[in-house]
Amino acid sequence: MLTSEAISPDKVQAVGRTIGSMTLGPVQSVRRQEQDLIISAENGSLVIRILPRGMIRFKLFPGAAGEDAVLSMKSTVAVVPQENSGGTLPEARLTEEGDKYTLATSEAILSISKQDGGISFMSGSRQFIADQAPLAWDESQAVTGLFTAGKSAHFYGLGEKTGALDKKGERYEMWNSDVYAPHVPEIEALYQSIPLLVVHEEDYTYGLFLDNPGRTFFDMRSNTDSFLMQTETGSMDYYFIPGPDMKGVVSRYTSLTGRMELPPHWALGYHQSRYSYMSQEEVLELARTFRAKQIPCDAIYLDIHYMEGYRVFTFDPERFPDPKGMIAELKKLGIRIVPIVDPGVKLDMNYPVFKEGTMNGYFCLKPDGQPFVGPVWPGMSVFPDFTEDRASEWWGDLHRFYTEMGIEGIWNDMNEPAVFNPSMTMDLDTMHGNNGEPVSHGEIHNLYGLLMSEATAEGMKRNLNGHRPFVLTRAGYAGIQRYAAVWTGDNRSFWEHMAMSIPMVLNLGLSGVAFAGPDIGGFAHHTSGELLVRWTQMGALFPYCRNHSELRSIRQEPWCFGPEVEEICREYIGLRYRLLPLIYSVFREAAETGLPVLRPLVLEYPEDPNVTNLCDQFLLGEQLLAAPVYRPGTTCRAVYLPAGTWIDYWSGQRYEGGRHILAEAPLERLPLYVKAGAIVPHQPVVESTALEAQRELTIDVYSGDESAGHFELYEDDGLTLDYGAGAYSLHRFRLREEASVIKLRIDTLHSGYGTSQDTWRLRFKHLSFLPGEIAVGAISADGAFEGSNSPETYYDEAEQELTLWISRPSSDMEIRIHQK
Ligand code: MIG
After folding, report:
1. Residues of the chain with pLDDT under 50
2. Whether the model pTM is above 0.90
3. Which is deepest, 91, 146, 327, 782, by most CB within 10 Å?
């Protein structure tokens, strides 16, 4: 532990990095080469590349000047090949005027100084965005980019960071790190490094993505009117991502770095973990307890003790003598197993994985050609070189060991990589083969976890006969969303950590990682019944929902704190299962558009100054607003409702937004609101998604005065990749309200899953008038309403709720409810 001696006068050092003094200097020539503008200056070159969707890439080549300089525009694997992205290249015009060159596209206008290569950014409509000072570097070629920022600028993204939602006044480092020390606001680097900064200026939002997987820095602290982006090694290779709004930035950024594939339903269920469930009997007993207590659960995790001496791809024969039998038994209960797989392979001549990998040269080597060896759980270990396709394929195929037993999900831990040595990772001079273009570990450190997850996801896919794999990872880099869900590592059972997980997961979402969540209940330290309840209430609405705790901590399964805690946990885990049709549809939207599942209010209400740094509320999709209680002994809290009408999910009470309200929140209540106009599908509680076959959908329609709502309901088998070949259904709901009639239009956008034998129960909640005539009709090709049949209906007067039943539509239709 540190004492005050740490700040003794002779120990205090300057913080922050210096800015190099070398710059491009006077521009000597500018030439256009297809999508590139090549600026050649006295001291180096800068290539500006026009990309689809208005994005612009900049790559600096210090020292490389002149016509014959070699300028490689190779990207890291974070960036998906843009040729296949379907986006067309915008027209770009280059003009020269006075001491400037101007490059104009419809999305952005850059003016580049001939004197020093400084750049001024404007929107396509000539609105000022920011000035970038000339890129500056030092002898070691560490490069700094300095951008001006307006007084009211706010900062988001940056992946998995501690602190508040708005990163104004903060400074962060990008260096994948295993941090068991408490995750406090001053920690600058955690497990994930996503160098995307979203800058939200008063009337323009843009993104900067620094594609450098070595150590980099973002500093919004040192200056009040500007911020810095700095590299330590490798190249200054970054992307300007135009908005004009935050949704535009996230959507463009995810078109650049890719989007997640649809996870299987079971990955969206409730998951239970602990370091570790120690034996086959314990796991089975745990599963039976969930079922006996009727608490929904889809997966149980096996932490490191399942292995034989921590050797990956093994089971300990004493603790887990019959994993196949255990998995088959669990399957009957609707529960899947997710084993942990770390990258460290035990140095052991008698261990086939070590032998095979060594013989084929799959492990990372030091410059002297000897393998890098470092201590992790199994003792001295070697590490696969995932930059080599052949090593990744081998690693992926090793997962047949698990898939053959019926395992469909893998948990990747320690993949920063974490090593128990002074540098806490692999030696930086370890060389990666990189398919024939060797790079040092220091240059690509932040890619290791992503490459491991890619190898795992691809290997699982190859071996799952058309089922979707689930991969969970601790470490990652930009683009990790393509391969894995992310959990936020070793938090603690602190109320503060529960609160912190909200902005953390929200910023991960703005950084392209829609599928994320913390250890519910907290990993280290000891949870309490009250904390577990509050965290479970909140976690039930997070994209990823897993309770996990540490070896030495008090047990924290939902029933460990007596019947009241158990009952409330059951209710909220149940709520998650009831809302799965909604959650799944929001996931599908995230997979399609890159927009997050869990959204900060600033994403939906960017003009509202009350939400720019709102850290203790979130939206699930667009329609549900949650305001969890994250302090002990608290039974009410202030909730900010943005513009519009909001309906209390539990009581039906209506509120006009644009103000704060005080919400009652006794222990059993999570304050939850639905936007008027919302369409929210529910299913009955099931104890596992494996039991979903008999599900019946209830679609709740929250009408409200003059509100218009829309929602797209997505359905498929939730298990296989068949949706890619059209085996899915997509229905678009649109709600319109006129003085005395409510119209719900349901368009069938795609009909490749489910049958019209399936019944939907439509519930019009909290109607503002007494319903009279109700017509259900088809919409003809020319858009006319052909109302004919009157459906079976039920009106609950006390609740002012109208229920009617229809068959799942296979063509466009409308429901009209007239006032009596
Ligand atoms: O530091 O595998 O973050 O979830 O339980 C120990 C044991 C290594 C760290 C992970 C944690 C996991 C634990 N691992």
Report:
1. none
2. yes
3. 146
pLDDT at res. 693 = 60
Kindly state the tokens that stand for 495. Answer: 């109320």
Taking the centre of ligand 1 as the mean of its atom positions, its distance from the CA of residue 695, in whole angstroms, is: 36
Q: Are 149 and 199 in contact (CB under 8 A)?
A: yes
What residues does each domain of the chain span? 22-257, 265-506+515-590, 694-819
* Cα(499)–Cα(666) distance, integer angstroms: 18
Q: How many Å from the N-terminal Cα to the C-terminal Cα in the chain?
A: 72
What atom of ligand 1 comes closest to residue 474's alpha carbon? 3
For residue 18, what pLDDT is reported?
81
The number of the ligand 1 atom at minimal distance from the alpha carbon of 550 is: 5
Tokens representing 753 are: 């899953």
Q: What is the rounded radius of gyration, in angstroms, for the C-alpha atoms of the chain?
A: 27
- CATH architecture for segment(s) 265-506+515-590: Alpha-Beta Barrel (3.20)
Q: Exactly one of 166, 416, 616, 801 is catalytic; which is it?
A: 416
Same fold, 22-257 and 265-506+515-590: no
CATH code for the structural domain at 22-257: 2.60.40.1760
With a 6 Å cutoff on the Cβ, whether 304 touches ligand 1 is yes
Query: Residue 809 in contact with residue 731, Cβ under 8 Å?
Result: yes
In the three-class reduction of DSSP (H, G, I as helix; E, B as strand; rest coil), residue 533 is classed as helix
Q: Catalytic site residue 237? A: no
Q: Is the shortest distance between the CB of 714 and ligand 1 below 6 Å? A: no
Output the CA 413–ligand 1 centroid distance in Å.
7
Domain 694-819 falls under CATH 3.40.250.10:
no
Distance 620 CA to ligand 1 centre (A): 28
Ligand 1 geometric centre to CA of 339 (Å): 12
Ligand 1 atom nearest to CA at 303: 2
pLDDT (0 to 100) of residue 14:
57
Q: Are 791 and 805 in contact (CB under 8 A)?
A: yes
pLDDT for the residue numbered 349: 96
Say what the pLDDT of residue 13 is.
Answer: 64
Are 328 and 316 contacting, i.e. CB atoms less than 8 angstroms apart? no
Interval 665-718: pLDDT, tens: 999 999 999 999 999 999 999 999 998 666 789 999 998 766 679 999 999 999
> CA nearest 730: which of 748, 742, 709, 755?
748
Rounded Cα distance, 245 and 427, in Å = 42
What are 652-656's contacts with CB under 8 Å, separation 24+?
Answer: 652/765, 652/766, 652/799, 654/704, 654/766
Q: Is 413 a catalytic residue?
A: yes
Question: How far is the C-alpha of 374 from the C-alpha of 383, rounded, in Å?
Answer: 9
Are the beta carbons of 21 and 54 closer than 8 angstroms? no
pLDDT tens-digit map of 390-407: 999 999 999 999 999 999
Mean pLDDT, the chain, whole residue set: 95
Q: Is 416 a catalytic residue?
A: yes
